[in-house]
Amino acid sequence: MEENETDLMQAANIIKIEGKLDKKANDFEKIMLIYKSAMKVLKTKFDILNEEFDNFCEYNPIDHITERIKSPDSIIEKMTKRELELTYKNLVEQINDIAGMRIICSFKDDIFKIVDIIENFQDIEIIERKDYITNPKQSGYSSYHMVVKVPVTFTDKTIYVKVELQIRTVAMDFWASLEHKLKYKKNISKKASKDLISAAKTIAKLDDKMMQIKLNI
Ligand code: 0O2
Prior knowledge:
Largest sheet: 6 strands, mixed
Oligomer: single chain
Radius of gyration: 19 Å
Bound molecules: ligand 0O2
Number of strands: 6
CATH superfamily: Beta Polymerase, domain 2
């Protein structure tokens, strides 16, 4: 990092980061604004890629992109569940998915093309990755996760901000959204869990089949 580059934690003249977290306070809004800015930076990079694929390449591996900032209530819920003291310091240091972006690809091998592209972004640092494509979660969930640090340039400094990326196929996204709806804040039966795992396996087979068809064409 260069001298005028700083971590969000050290951006003390922008926010009083040592304080107790208060979702109605100005500082909370300022932090969220920094995460939103990081998302804009990353989204612009992907928009440019998308246009490049559409106009200069034969094929575009990106189907669509979605983004979201975690709501204050869901941030507090996550920190409470993890038994973290509700401070800005913990929020910035411990919660990696305040800014989240999903890149939805058409085919399974597109996911790894996107991962390669992200690895080649010179100004983006990858700080964590989880490959639930090669090793799906017990729930059946499949997706490639990365936490990246994105440079956000303000008048006098560049702040590095974490954004969580989830890269998955349309089919994986379909399963994850429905499973999230069915399971979220609910205790579902063992039978329902098993059925969801079985549905995830069907989706995985379908993804492999569609990829094979594409490779054969
Ligand atoms: P939400 O409401 O989607 O934001 P971490 O987020 O790193 O603290 P964890 O579990 O170590 O927690 O990370 P992991 O496994 O990378 O999962 C993070 C996110 O992946 C989740 O965020 C979900 O979006 C998604 N995810 C993980 N497992 C499942 C699953 O079994 N089903 C579905 N539908 N999504 C999953 P949140 O914050 O849990 O939820």
